């Protein structure tokens, strides 16, 4: 693997040198490809256009990110920003590369979570959009446009991850391919209309399964948290190391989102039936609400408390999008019509 990693470092150096003027673009793209964007941006946007697609996005995002966590624990992938120093292969010729605020993620690097979750979630969106366009226009060319945008987006996210030294090229390729297959498979198994017990069981099952994998690796003498020490050692700035990029953060996000999805469907099965204008209003209010929920500061002194509150945040996401905001908008517009 040394040859693959070394080649990846020189590719990252070349990419940074040749596209330095597009630095801001790559930073925006890497934020768009962040798994949490699927929960906070893609989910509400799609839900108010198509409830089934919105639920599918949340479901696929949670399952694919959970699988990505397990894969990372098992595959032990290095990250470029720490492998440059740890490998001791660049003593005579240091690569001219730079880190960024999004570089220093603390989990293992293979496969890329950004590429994997984006590939899975966007497949749900583009397949739904492509089918809709074909049903309305019967144009193969027009219905193929979303799939072209899908490929372009995946390539852009992959390039952005290599650019900021978060991943090697082979890791984003592996993540993209895995995400595509997961999107195809999971999109046909969306849990619509399932009871709350189903989501509670899935959430607890994913939590316990991940903890069993973590504990099993420890029993084998393998430290699943080996990457955290390396990230702290080689990150250019200490403040770029954030607890919300730790592997357990993604686990609690996924379990919280699925439990929240079950609660939302329990409180209001089928959701609220709203015309287009109230839907647009609901989307705007939901987006503002999720923005402020996401920005709520959490205590980092106690990791246990942080993870619990982090999970609560993502339990709230489906409640805001599927129940609270559309319910208030429905109540307001209903009263207005009666008057």
Automatic annotation (TrEMBL):
Mode of membrane association: Multi-pass membrane protein
Coiled-coil ranges per UniProt: none
Keyword list, A-Z: Endoplasmic reticulum, Gluconeogenesis, Hydrolase, Membrane, Transmembrane, Transmembrane helix
Group of enzyme by EC: hydrolase
Location of the active site: 114, 167
InterPro entries assigned: Glucose-6-phosphatase (IPR016275), PAP2/HPO (IPR000326), PAP2/HPO_sf (IPR036938)
Protein name: Glucose-6-phosphatase
């Amino acid at each position: 693997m040394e040859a693959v990693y070394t080649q990846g470092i020189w590719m990252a150096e070349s990419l940074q040198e040749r596209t330095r003027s597009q630095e801001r673009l790559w930073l925006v793209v890497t934020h768009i490809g962040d798994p949490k964007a699927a929960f906070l941006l893609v989910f509400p946007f799609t839900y108010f256009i198509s409830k089934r697609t919105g639920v599918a996005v949340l479901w696929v995002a949670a399952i694919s990110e959970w699988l990505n966590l397990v894969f990372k624990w098992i595959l032990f992938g290095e990250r470029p920003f720490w492998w440059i120093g740890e490998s001791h292969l660049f003593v005579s010729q240091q690569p001219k590369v730079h880190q960024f605020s999004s570089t220093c993620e603390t989990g293992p690097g293979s496969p890329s979570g950004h590429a994997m979750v984006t590939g899975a979630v966007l497949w749900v969106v583009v397949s739904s959009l492509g089918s809709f366009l074909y049903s309305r226009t019967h144009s193969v060319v027009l219905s193929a446009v979303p799939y072209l945008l899908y490929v372009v987006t995946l390539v852009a996210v992959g390039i952005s991850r290599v650019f900021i030294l978060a991943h090697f090229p082979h890791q984003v390729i592996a993540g993209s391919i895995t995400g595509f297959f997961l999107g195809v498979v999971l999109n046909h198994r969306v849990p619509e209309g399932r009871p709350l017990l189903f989501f509670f069981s899935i959430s607890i099952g994913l939590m316990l399964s991940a903890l069993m994998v973590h504990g099993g690796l420890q029993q084998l003498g393998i430290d699943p948290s080996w990457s955290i020490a390396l990230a702290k050692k080689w990150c250019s700035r200490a403040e770029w190391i954030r607890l919300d990029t730790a592997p357990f953060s993604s686990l609690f996000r996924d379990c919280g989102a699925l439990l929240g999805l079950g609660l939302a469907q329990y409180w209001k099965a089928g959701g609220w039936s709203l015309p287009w204008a109230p839907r647009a209003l609901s989307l705007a209010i939901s987006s503002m609400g999720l923005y402020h929920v996401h920005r709520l500061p959490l205590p980092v002194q106690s990791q246990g408390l942080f993870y619990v509150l982090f999970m609560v945040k993502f339990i709230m996401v489906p409640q805001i999008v599927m129940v609270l905001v559309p319910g208030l908008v429905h109540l307001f517009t209903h009263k207005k019509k009666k008057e």
